[in-house]
Design brief:
2 domains; 33% strand; Jelly Rolls; 383 residues; 22 strands; globular
């Protein structure tokens, strides 16, 4: 090998070593696999259903427990035995027309809504004193020492009422005793929305020995009577049963109720500004023929009370002025409601029993005069 060839071999050898040295010195990384980054997959997440917030369940209305043996008179269930009116006139119908309460309103409720509480199953009278006041004047009753008037007062439902409740009376001489007009009559209870139901009681011992007509009164207090729906819930007259004599076979009873004028001849009531014709109501004993009668009250009042009736079976018939040669027109209790042209019904009166809210509602005038009616006793006057 000549000198030139040796030189080229050495240079090639040194070049290869130098290249290896350079590669080693620079430390180029060896090729490695880069792991794949996982691609997230879409996952379905359901949107939660929105549940509306529930209103709190109204608390139940729980009035004081009352022993039925103490109940002498229930004003609510006997509502139509009273005459009702405002400060100007007596109402014609029982109950009043709730759809047209311009003169005031009253009605019986068997499931009243008592402010914010759940509806009660206790009997109640709802009152709206549109003309400033509404009064219910009940049949006469003889008060004894220890007698108690009890009721729960409240606004009806969510009505924003602001009223005063009062217990008043008419004495046996026809004198009216409004609330707090004498020393023994402090019974007025003021009430407004938000007060909740309040149970009130009045001891009637100051009237012992008197036969009076108790009056439930509701008066407006805020000048906004259209919103003043007020409730008398379970208004009762209570008497200790131990003070009542046990009835014998001859202990008298009583029948009370009202004459429904919706089917009466129009001339008896068609002039709203006049004093309406009165009606006489007669209870006739079917066994003996004995009878007792009561004339309904003044204008717009068609309630009657027939006390001290011997036990027995009775017809109850109303007689009013006829026209021309017709001496009188009649209406009768039939036991049906509504009733038109049905036979006179029988009321079975037991010893010591007091039967109230009797509707005399079947007018012969309206129903063709075909049903049999007892003739008016000769000495019973037509008012």
């Amino acid at each position: 090998m000549n000198t030139k060839d040796r030189y080229m071999a050495i240079r090639n050898l040194l070049g290869a070593g130098l290249l290896g040295l350079l590669l080693t010195t620079c430390g180029l990384p060896a090729t490695t696999e880069i792991p794949a980054t996982p691609v997230p997959t879409s996952t379905f997440t359901p949107i939660p259903t929105l549940t509306p917030a529930l209103s709190p369940t109204p608390e139940p209305f729980t009035p004081p427990a009352i022993d039925p043996a103490w109940v002498l008179f229930d004003f609510a269930t006997n509502m139509c035995t009273a005459r009702w009116g405002n400060s100007l006139v007596w109402f014609e119908l029982c109950p009043a027309n709730r759809s047209d309460p311009q003169g005031g309103f009253y009605a019986f409720l068997d499931q009243p809504g008592v402010e914010s509480l759940a509806a009660s199953d206790l009997p109640a009278i709802t009152v709206l004193p549109t003309q400033g006041a509404v009064f219910g004047e009940f049949p006469p009753i003889l008060i004894q020492a220890g007698d108690i008037f009890q009721a729960t007062i409240a606004c009806e439902g969510d009505a924003p009422c602001n009223v005063s409740f009062a217990l008043e009376y008419m004495d046996q001489n026809g004198t009216y005793h409004p609330n707090a007009n004498d020393g023994i009559w402090p019974w007025e209870w003021r009430h407004q929305a938000g007060d909740g139901p309040v149970t009130i009681a009045a001891d009637l011992s100051g009237l012992a020995g008197l036969r009076v007509q108790l009056v439930l009164a509701v008066r407006d207090r805020d000048g906004d009577p259209e919103s003043n729906y007020a409730l008398w819930v379970q208004p009762l007259l209570l008497r200790d049963p131990s003070t009542r004599p046990a009835p014998t076979s001859q202990t008298p009873g009583a029948i009370s109720g009202f004459v429904a004028m919706a089917g009466a001849p129009p001339y008896l009531y068609d002039d709203p500004g006049s004093v309406h014709a009165l009606v006489v109501v007669v209870a006739i004993n079917q066994q003996t023929g004995a009878y007792q009668y009561d004339t309904t009250g003044e204008a717009y009042s068609y309630a009657f009370t027939l006390p001290d009736l011997p036990p027995g079976n009775y017809w109850v018939v109303a007689y009013a002025q006829g026209v021309g040669d017709v001496e009188y027109v009649t209406a009768a209790y039939t036991g049906a409601s509504p009733s038109c042209g049905q036979a006179t019904g029988t009321i079975h009166l037991l010893p010591g029993q007091e039967i109230g809210n009797v509707p005399v509602n079947d007018w012969q005038w309206t129903c063709g005069g075909t049903a049999d009616r007892p003739a008016k006793p000769a000495d019973v006057p037509i008012p």
